[in-house]
Design brief:
Blueprint: E1 2-4, H1 7-11, H2 19-45, E2 50-53, E3 58-60, E4 65-66, H3 70-76, E5 81-82, E6 88-89, E7 97-99, E8 101-104, H4 123-127, H5 142-155, H6 165-169
């Protein structure tokens, strides 16, 4: 499941992520976690198993790993494709979405994988302050990105590893 990120909040990102963007990011994460909990409880009340996976709970910061990859779950669920920015790109909202996952044994209708790509667009590559994005998401420079996130977190008092530049320009 996903929620769109506000265009107006993203527009405020100029040279670095802002505290406004941080608050918005955290608010969306809380909202998604709340939705996942409600859905989990509803599924369990129907007699099925369900487990909400936190929206943004990193298990290993250096490896940038979580319980699972929401973007890969969303990709396989047909919500979008993996873009040059190494994020899920929704056909309508671009990368301007935050995601959450509920694992369940409730029988669901399968979706088809979205056959999309970024086409000629390279805005994320051009704007990436870390130079971490390349022609293919497979060439994403995780270390360069993480180093820039650490810099933003410390230098601008953000206190969390967020950026938002590639999200801002996608679609």
């Amino acid at each position: 499941m996903g929620v769109r990120v506000s265009e107006s909040v993203l527009k405020g990102i100029k040279n670095h992520p802002t505290r406004h963007y941080l608050h918005h990011y955290k608010t969306i994460n809380y909202f998604l976690d709340h939705i996942a909990l409600k859905i989990t409880l509803a599924i369990e009340s129907m007699g099925f198993s369900a487990m909400p996976i936190p929206t943004s709970q990193i298990i290993d910061w250096e490896k940038q790993t979580a319980h699972l990859s929401h973007k890969m779950i969303a990709f396989r669920a047909g919500i979008g494709w993996i873009g040059r920015n190494n994020l899920l790109v929704h056909p309508d909202y671009g990368a301007k979405i935050r995601l959450v996952t509920v694992l369940t044994d409730l029988p669901l209708i399968e979706n088809r994988i979205v056959e999309g790509d970024c086409g000629e667009c390279r805005k994320c590559i051009e704007i990436c302050p870390a130079g971490a994005l390349k022609e293919s998401y497979k060439d994403y420079d995780k270390k360069a990105c993480l180093d820039k996130l650490k810099y933003f977190s410390k230098t601008y008092g953000i206190g969390q590893y967020i950026c938002g530049f590639c999200v801002k320009v996608c679609r």
